[in-house]
From TrEMBL:
SUPFAM superfamilies: GST C-terminal domain-like, Thioredoxin-like. Residues 1-76 form the GST N-terminal domain. PROSITE patterns: GLUTAREDOXIN_1, GLUTAREDOXIN_2, GST_NTER. It comes from the Bacteria. It comes from Komagataeibacter medellinensis. This is Glutaredoxin 2.
């Protein structure tokens, strides 16, 4: 199996998590961010992640998660979800304003060419406005995101699973938090950081704190 991804992409992290948790062998293929042709040929649009399995292509991160989790008849995402976790993640969507300009400046393989990096910048500035303005707002956004992380701390039941047993909440939460580790200057409560460290270890997906800015 091959999984086509961008390293920074939280949706791709969702798909990568299930391979890591289940130790299912897969080859990650990082596409250049301006490669429109490859994903379009596979699924008809420029969107990752894409799973290639037996000559077929599957898009949609959570479809890939469900497919891989069910494949051996021994699912690992067996725990219940909690509405407060999905609510916390959707309330914190604004922190993408912190993440996107930092992804754009990072030494990530999807930006191996200048054209690929510029494609990303143009694409995301269309969504959130100029990165300069976003970066200028960093202090205020970091403060509110740190307060949100403090609230999350009380919701984490175990470092190995936010609700005590692995569930879809872990897919969404770790995908989000892993992206956030590229932001320097956040205050990470110990339980939230322990969760990130544990999930990184369990999934084999490194955090981005080594390139935090
Ligand atoms: N619903 C899709 C969303 C995937 C998605 O939005 N992927 C982004 C990357 S984070 C993408 O490929 N966007 C097109 C682009 O960056 O040009 C899923 O869950 O897989």
């Amino acid at each position: 199996m091959k999984l086509y991804i961008y390293d920074h992409c939280p949706f791709c992290v969702k798909a990568r998590i299930i391979f890591g948790l289940k130790h299912v062998p897969v080859t990650d293929v990082v596409l250049l961010n301006d490669d429109v042709e490859t994903p379009t040929r596979m699924i008809g649009r420029k969107l990752v992640p894409i799973l290639e399995h037996d000559g077929r292509f599957m898009g949609e991160s959570m479809d890939i998660v469900a497919h891989i989790d069910a494949m051996d008849g021994k699912p690992v995402l067996t725990g219940p979800t909690r509405p407060e976790i999905s609510q916390w993640i959707s309330d914190e969507a604004r922190a993408y304003t912190l993440m996107l300009p930092r992804f754009a400046a990072a030494p990530l393989p999807e930006f191996a060419t200048t054209a690929a990096r510029l494609y990303f910048i143009r694409n995301k500035e269309d969504m959130i406005g100029p990165f300069n303005a976003a970066l200028a707002d960093s202090a205020a956004l970091c403060a509110s995101t740190s307060r949100a992380l403090a609230r999350l701390s009380g919701l984490i039941q175990q470092p190995g699973a936010v609700n005590g047993t692995l569930s879809q909440d872990d897919i969404h939460l770790f995908a989000y938090l892993r992206g956030l580790t590229i932001v320097a200057g956040l205050e990470w409560p110990a339980p939230v950081w322990a969760y990130c460290r544990h999930m990184a270890q369990a999934t084999g997906i490194p955090l981005l704190d080594n390139m935090a800015a």
